[in-house]
DNA sequence: CAGCCAAAAATTTGATCATATTCTGCCGCC
DNA sequence: GGCGGCAGAATATGATCAAATTTTTGGCTG
């Protein structure tokens, strides 16, 4: 079941509308694997656990459905989609293409401030890997990529990349939960080095490899599990 | 203003929920340029013109916003987005990548029935071009690509491609409305020929060129108009 | 006296909620 | 094992409240 946690209008949210807060909350839960693949999501469950009305919750769910983060099961049921092997290969194909381009653009527009922030995030990521902090790893890894996207200044590409993260987020959590963070590939060091050298294509190449390796590893783990019904 | 037209529960829709009908209606209006770039869209306007309640309309709008087909203007106004030169180049990049891959997959899974249907759609497209029927051209062209996607059997790639169509639909309509259908490139003939020859990479190449030429032509026209405020 | 800026009321639109209605799935009964 | 009712959840509506834009009006200045 979804744990009860009221929406807190934290300082950053200021006066965001409720449906936006619900959306952000749900999105983070999916992205960082707090909802397992296949788990059912009900409107009433969310109105209760989030303390919001039905209309905002409905809107948030529709939005996430349209982003592929939630799936409509035909008979008005909604659940977190289970990524198939075939789905994952499609995701891999697009991610490699889009994220390489985003990296290219980011490399051309990089500022010293942003580069420094990237180094910091990468350090946090390393620490999460060492201590085996799965949640921290997922967040740092996403933040690293997200920051790069924001530097790239390409809203349409960024939005599409974000959408893909939502698709494999839940499965990534499952994979990490099962096998730990130790052998996850991390090409961020190479990326940062190429960044400092001003090697645009090098950054793009490193990104493509980072994506490919991470995704292929996921594909390997998922293929072992395909068809099984156990979670975590 | 948006013209008044009640939702008709046509035979195909059968028992679709209202919010789905509203979504489909609005989507088609945007995709085929019945709403101009920059045009404002209000909830109350749609509840009146479509004869639906607020909740379904709200959901449909949220969904389309999340697809990039509608834009939130900050002060809770919603409008059809105006495609900038920069946006368009991002769209071009992804379309080339995704649609080439879709064409590749479609070529491998093509059936005689589907190939025949494609020929028919291409013929309809040619006729629309000859008679200068802009609406017919837009529809046939979309149908041609959509059929190819469905053959490719790659839901995630297809969904992303569809999303991109929604982004440039309104602008494409403007371009066609201004310059007619005569000099629009059309690589469909090459694509069909390669398809019959079983030349998978040839199909992908033809698709990439079809996309590139169509999009670049749009970019050229848009660049002339950039900054102006006149419509149509 | 006319024109203009600004402030405030009024209207329009969006956000949220409570409620009614419809549909789905399940359970018990025949 | 099939059929009908029952419970629960989703869909849809209208009412209500809040925000923003537009209009009006009053005062000031040239």
UniProtKB/TrEMBL annotation, chains A, B:
Q: Which InterPro entries match?
A: GntR_C (IPR011711), TF_FadR/GntR_C (IPR008920), Tscrpt_reg_HTH_GntR (IPR000524), WH-like_DNA-bd_sf (IPR036388), WH_DNA-bd_sf (IPR036390)
Domain called HTH gntR-type: residue spans: 16-83
Name-wise, this protein is Transcriptional regulator, GntR family
Query: Where on the tree of life does the source sit, at the highest rank?
Result: Bacteria
Instruction: Name any one GO molecular function.
Output: DNA-binding transcription factor activity
Give the signal peptide as a residue range, or say none if absent.
Answer: none
The UniProt keyword set, sorted, is: DNA-binding, Transcription, Transcription regulation
